[in-house]
Amino acid sequence: MTTLSAFNRFTDQLSEQDQLMPVLFIGHGSPMNGIEDNEFSRRWTKLAREIPIPKAVLVVSAHWLSRGTRITAMDFPETIHDFGGFPKALFDLQYKAPGDLSVAKETAALIKSTQVELDHDWGLDHGTWTVVRHMYPQANIPVLQLSIDASKGPQYQYELARELYNLRKKGVLIIGSGNMVHNLRMVAWDKLNDNEYGYDWAIEMNHTFKELIRNGDHQKLVNYEALGRAALLSIPTPEHYFPLLYVLGLKGKNEEASFFNDKLVGGSLTMTSVKFG
């Protein structure tokens, strides 16, 4: 297994490489996906085998909202169990991936629109570790999180993401982790195991989101509130949607979208995910 010191030497001077790392938006869904062997977690495992091995993973998770922008900068970020009412096995799980201070500093330096604070208190929340542990189960690749400034709107999030593009040239895998359609108040609990069932508005917006992403119509996606009632029902609060805007901001000019885990859960959630590159 590669040691932390070896990875720190590896990433201490991030250099550009010939191959551009892909960028991913992943619908993370229930925390239980972190320990379950299901169609979603199996796809995350397979995905990691399909893309180049990253030097580091940087995640923008729906579950780290802050005032200002922060990035984790500790040697070993803690595994945060930011949920309740789940089995003990989920709370017992620890994902002990290293962090990487050099990647944190380089990321902070790339962002010119705001001052990024190095954070030593957060860790990896379930928007990160429930996904990444299936992709890199040996926990031998540095994992960092970048917070979402909750005081800013969608245009700000999209434009900030564009400043991170050079990380893709340097072997960093950037993941936005949320859900395109995410309305917990309207979940049909009796339909949780029916991945074909969805409210009409959720089905409509899942289709609309995919079409706009395919067509590269980012401004309509940024201005999602203008898409009508279905959009407002799909995104009652923006935190699970904002990670998608980061991924759109990181898309290269001629990169096409490929979708995976395109499923509905409980009628009012989608696991729909997208890869560029």
UniProtKB/TrEMBL annotation:
<dbReference type="InterPro" id="IPR004183">
    <property type="entry name" value="Xdiol_dOase_suB"/>
</dbReference>
<dbReference type="Pfam" id="PF02900">
    <property type="entry name" value="LigB"/>
</dbReference>
<comment type="similarity">
    <text>Belongs to the DODA-type extradiol aromatic ring-opening dioxygenase family.</text>
</comment>
<protein>
    <submittedName>
        <fullName>4,5-DOPA dioxygenase extradiol</fullName>
        <ecNumber>1.13.11.29</ecNumber>
    </submittedName>
</protein>
<dbReference type="GO" id="GO:0008270">
    <property type="term" value="F:zinc ion binding"/>
</dbReference>
<keyword id="KW-0479">Metal-binding</keyword>
<keyword id="KW-0223">Dioxygenase</keyword>
<dbReference type="GO" id="GO:0008198">
    <property type="term" value="F:ferrous iron binding"/>
</dbReference>
<feature type="domain" description="Extradiol ring-cleavage dioxygenase class III enzyme subunit B">
    <location>
        <begin position="37"/>
        <end position="254"/>
    </location>
</feature>
<dbReference type="InterPro" id="IPR014436">
    <property type="entry name" value="Extradiol_dOase_DODA"/>
</dbReference>
<dbReference type="GO" id="GO:0050297">
    <property type="term" value="F:stizolobate synthase activity"/>
</dbReference>
<keyword id="KW-0862">Zinc</keyword>
<keyword id="KW-0560">Oxidoreductase</keyword>
